[in-house]
Amino acid sequence: MMGSVTTLNEFIIDRQSDFPYAKGELTRLLNHIGIAGKVVSREVNKAGLAEILGEIGSNNVHGESQKKLDVYANQKFINALQGSGEVCGIASEENEEIIAFDDDLAKNGPYIVSIDPVDGSSNIDVNVSIGTLFSIYRRVTPRGHRAGDADFLQEGTRQVAAGYILYGSSTVMVYTTGRGVNGFTLDGSIGEYCLSHSDIMAPPNGIIYSINEGHYIKFPDGVKKYIKYCQTNDPQTNRPYVSRYIGSLVADFHRNLLKGGIFIYPTTEQNPHGKLRLLYECNPLAFLIEQAGGRATDGYGNRILDIKPSKLHQREPLFIGSRNMVSLAEQMMKEYSPIK
Ligand code: AHG
Ligand code: MN
Ligand code: MN
How far is the CA of 281 from the centre of ligand 2 (A)? Predict the structure, then answer.
């Protein structure tokens, strides 16, 4: 303890006994993710100075133009995770295939990590919050061998830890190991993440709805009905609600987690499976929200964490946030748009 402050490292070590099998491996891994996040945070904060803004001229696997910071952050996380010795491979939004480490130390690592190194890329150049998402599993292939796709295509229920780093007005790391959700704010003056949000619980109800309403015409009828519900005047239930949409999933999620709200990225005509990726966007946030007492579904009655992935970059629609809000949206989907 530094005075009354608990640092991320101290907290993780304190909680190590929650994991009889982990023997400090998960502790070291979470610390390494935090350190890579500090490096990225520093780059984000000087982005305008460092000529790191803008596009790099290549496309990623989704055909989206990659920003310099996407590539930079991806490399920082890959290096940190490989160096940790706890991780045998990584799946990243920025790489079409898994990255299976070849050195003996890493091949012996018990964990795999799926990451979205920079979430909210379109906001980088305009100084709006962005984030990093991570999801950690124990491998299913034997230690000492190269990691394989099977290690990554596990249901979200099998995550051992997950979280995000939000590069906002301050940098915050929020994670869970299945024993609640805690948040740590980076104090740049001492270079440490300090416990700032302990045992986060999502309010069961909220007044914020977050959805890209520009796509309204393409939404399923169930979503249109829910949006109209949010906009209806009913002071008894605090409606009309407040509409907030940053376009950085991590930032939209973090606000709704703390204040109460729902985030929806539904199926649309152009994206019949939604836009967000199951392994490194939907799953880590679904694990966090359930740990905080909220819900995450695909809008068609399926819990996100139960979906068995068949592809690394699989997309799923996402309805996530305060539990009663998600339940009502689900109910309207069931009534007006029962089929995907
Ligand atoms: P990424 O920058 O990692 O590609 O993710 C962008 C995602 C997510 O952050 C956000 O919620 C969503 O895209 C916004 O999409 P729309 O612009 O279609 O609303
Ligand atoms: Mn993303
Ligand atoms: Mn991204």
Answer: 6
State whether 14 and 146 are in the same domain. Answer: yes
- 231/104 same-domain check: no
Residues 274-295, mean pLDDT to the nearest whole number: 98
- Distances from the Cα of 295 to the Cα of 108, 125, 299, 320, angstroms: 35, 32, 11, 6
Would you say the CB of residue 316 lies under 6 angstroms from ligand 1?
no
Residues 55, 26: Cα–Cα separation, whole Å: 35
pLDDT score of 51: 61
Whole-structure pTM value: 0.95
Whichever domain contains 248, its CATH number is: 3.40.190.80
Residues 62, 183, single domain; the answer is yes
Q: Is residue 203 part of a domain?
A: no
Domain-embedded: residue 3: no
Residue 2 counted as domain residue: no
Residue 281: φ, ψ to 5°: -120, -60
Question: Cα of 119 to ligand 2 centre, how many Å?
Answer: 4
CATH number of 23's domain? 3.30.540.10
Which domain range does residue 233 map to? 208-336
Among 69, 119, 256, name the best residue to mutate to test ligand 1's pocket (greatest count of ligand atoms within 8 A of Cβ): 119
Question: Above 90 in pLDDT, residue 285?
Answer: yes
Q: pLDDT tens for residues 70-118?
A: 999 999 999 999 998 999 999 999 999 999 999 999 999 999 999 999 9
Per-residue CA distances from 14 to 39, 185, 220, 237 (Å): 25, 18, 46, 42
